[in-house]
Amino acid sequence: MNQFYSPGWAFWIGGVTIVSIVSLFLFLRLTAKQTVFRDKAGNPIATTGHVWDGDLQEFNNPLPRWWMGLFILTLVFAVAYLTLYGGLAFYKGVLGFSSDKMYQQESAAFDARIEPLYAGYMKTPIPELAKNPAAMATGQRMFLTYCSQCHGSDAGGTKGFPNLTQHNANAWLYGNSPETLVETITNGRMGMMPPMEAAVGGKQGVLAVANYVRSLSGLSHDAKLAAQGKPLFAAACAACHGADGTGNKALGAPDLADPKRQWLFGSSIETISHTIEKGRAGQMPAQKDFLSPEKIHLLAAYIYSISHGSAANQ
Predict the structure, then answer these.
(1) DSSP codes, 219-280
(2) What are the pLDDT digits (tens) for 23-54?
């Protein structure tokens, strides 16, 4: 919505607020004095002179003083609040208060109290830190806060988001070594599989390559189509996935020949054909602007622990 924002809105909203408060003060002032109504002869009467249904009259009674007092107090409170806390958008207020400033102050106070703990964790190598139950409990809470939205609360992932609990190192597009995990969390990853329909000769070529890809990991396939797809794969796909389909971690190209791997988008003929035909694009956002190096180190240790299973605790 920021494309609709203009500084003029602050003055508009602030102006309407000020005019409303002043108008209410004037309204109360005008209604504080009771108007005297008179009959046709000029004599004062106790009603406003309005009559409905023959005998239903509107009496000329002033507003209760207690009600007017409370109303005036609310207006005084509004003026004091806007003066002190700057609720007019264009005016910061005498106290300079803002919810963003309060959040930053509270975060800074919390970080000052907790940073020594993270600093101690930072000095511990990730494989060793992964064996620390207290550290991993903290790492799990960090994962639930920053990572579970995509990878799931159990880190099992979902379609398009990798399963971080896989103990099979070949299943990791870039690897799950301590250094790689820190790099991935810090700077993120940008994965891209370009559309290859034209490169493999159209839809028939896509189907042939899809069957060949399934054959690499021992999945059911059409042998005739797989044979047709093998030279097409060598010409169009081997540059990234390797001639034997075992992938390239430097490029983030998955190992297509591992029968134990979990497919990021699925392994059906339809899904693989769609990937070849339309390509895929994915991004793991960089966390360096949100997390300190110490927190990234601890988070990497937690992911290392769940991706190495019992080996991480030995």
Answers:
(1) ----HHHHHHHHHHHHHHTHHHH-TTS--BTTTTB--SS-TTPPPSS--SHHHHHHHHHH-E
(2) 999 988 887 776 777 777 777 777 777 788 88
